[in-house]
Amino acid sequence: MKNLNVIIVGGGIGGLQTALALGVDGHKVTVLESAKEFLEVGAGIRVPPNSSRLSNSWGVDFSKIKKSISLGNRFVDWKGNILADCPYNDVEEKYGAPYYLLHRADLIHVLEDAVAKAENVTLLMDSRVEAYDYEAPAVTLASGERLEADLIICADGIKSAVRNTINGSPIEPQDTGDVAYRVLVPVEPLLADPKTRHLVEQPWAVHWMGPEAHAVGYPLRGGELYNIIIDITHATDVGRPVGEDEWRSQADNEELVKRFAEWCEPMRKLCTLTGTYLKWRLADFAQLDRWVHPSGKVALLGDACHPMMPYMAQGAAQATEDAGTLQAALRKFDNIPEALDAYQTQRLPRAAYVAKNTRILQEWLHLYDGPERDRRDSLMKADKASNPIFWSYTPRKDWLFAHDAKDLEAGEDEVFPKLAGLPAPEARIYNGKLPDTELRQQFRSMKAGNKLKTHL
Ligand SMILES: Cc1cc2nc3c(=O)[nH]c(=O)nc-3n(C[C@H](O)[C@H](O)[C@H](O)COP(=O)(O)OP(=O)(O)OC[C@H]3O[C@@H](n4cnc5c(N)ncnc54)[C@H](O)[C@@H]3O)c2cc1C
Ligand SMILES: *[C@@H]1O[C@H](CO)[C@@H](O)[C@H](O)[C@H]1NC(C)=O
Ligand SMILES: *[C@@H]1O[C@H](CO)[C@@H](O)[C@H](O)[C@H]1NC(C)=O
Asked: FAD-binding domain spans which residues (predicted)?
């Protein structure tokens, strides 16, 4: 289809990329963003190979960003022993682009630049959408202004106001039991110490794994900053809806220093360097029944329809794929409902599969020491479906990185590679059968400053 009038609600990474993708195809796109200006929150963001290739094709200029190129994922236990490396040295050759480690603010900047240059895209800030007319389709802004279009894409994030209506039944984001701390730390103290120097100089995404917590660290901007995301279990009876005031809170490093007092030296050092930062409640939900309103004119995209834990570093990448598939579908079909149907058919199961695997990783990454942890450590060494690390089984890695979002045949009768199972119930942290000991309660309330008995 040509020259559609498209409204995109939400100017996050998902909404902006969709606008760019549809703009280069000649559609006239208006992005409505409620914020007055972009929040430069967040820290690092990992951009896999096909994701940057898609963005490039829409005029996003990665050459302007100071990047680090990931050597791969390194898994280390909480005492500092390397358990397994999952190298990315074949990524550029095999999948056509490197795996980038970026500062989220840098990515937002190049997206803003690209949008400013895109002649077919208009971005309206301070424009909150308050009501939808699904049949017209049209939106009404907080100002009372009504805007009509041929197609409306709702990229309004995890708290999407329209998801329930589009899905046909209510679905609330559920507490996953984990909170995330996203922090940037200065590199000078890390470089000065021979025990942590390699963290900055060798751009692995290092995963430290221990009881009820894990952390992922990697350098940004070619080693000017170090990014660390710390994910901690705060509750193990998962599934509660997240309350309005619970999404994020301020915290300081005293809490982290105590919580990780028994971990290896690099982790302890990183905790002392964190200062103050935001804690984010991690939420997701089981897959939606549909992403497209029955009118066939309004569809969901990005976190609004597939929020996931950051454990696969795929939140933004999946939204980028959404944009690529939508672009391809609008090219191929000559009516909007058919295009949206093809978009949903391809995207919904793929995003749900990735989200589901973040829950599997959550269990394996947070195990206590014991027989199941030992079993995990040996499973992690083999290129087999039972390997709990997603990327360490080649068919899964290829499935993730070699995917062509613009190939609409890719989703039909797709066979998904086998995921690893969950740990044994008696070792499982979340809704499992692990006894709730005082030690575990201590960890959760983060009063873990004293010497802890760490074997159950
Ligand atoms: C702090 C932070 C750090 C992250 N780090 C990573 C990372 O390292 N790697 C990764 O892959 N992912 C990361 N993510 C997740 C990733 O950013 C998202 O998965 C991805 O950007 C897709 O988001 P989105 O565009 O769908 O939604 P969002 O980014 O949530 O954007 C939604 C936008 O819609 C706007 N909006 C909402 N309601 C309305 C309305 N009624 N009218 C108009 N506008 C509205 C909001 O203001 C917002 O700008 C992070 C997320 C956050 C918040
Ligand atoms: C903008 O849209 C027109 C058609 O409406 C198209 O010819 C043109 O290539 C588009 N511009 C850009 C920069 O993609
Ligand atoms: C994604 O990667 C595969 C394999 O490298 C390639 O065939 C395909 O064209 C890529 N898609 C995009 C959009 O770059």
From this structure: 5-357
